[in-house]
Amino acid sequence: MKIIHAADIHLDSPMLGLERYEGAPVDLLRGATRRAFSRLIDLCLEERASLLLLAGDLFDGDWKDYGTGLFFLAELGRLAEANVRVVMLRGNHDAQSVLTKQLSLPAHVEELPTGAPGTLVFEDLGVAVHGQGFAERAVNRDLTPEYPAPLPGMLNVGLLHTCLDDRPGHANYAPSSTQALIHHGYDYWALGHIHTREIVSREPWIVYPGNLQGRHMRERGPKGATCIEVEGGRIRRVEHRDLAVVRWEKLELDAKDYADPDELLVAAGDALNRLHEELACSLAVRIEIVGRSALHGVFAAEPERWLAEFRRAAADVGSVWLERLELSTQTRVDLSELRELGGPVGQLARTLAELRQDPEALGALCEELAELERRLPRELRDGAERLGLTDPEVTSEELSAIEQLLLPMLFDAEQG
Ligand SMILES: [Mn+2]
Question: 228 falls in which pLDDT band (50, 70, 90)?
Answer without folding.
Answer: very high
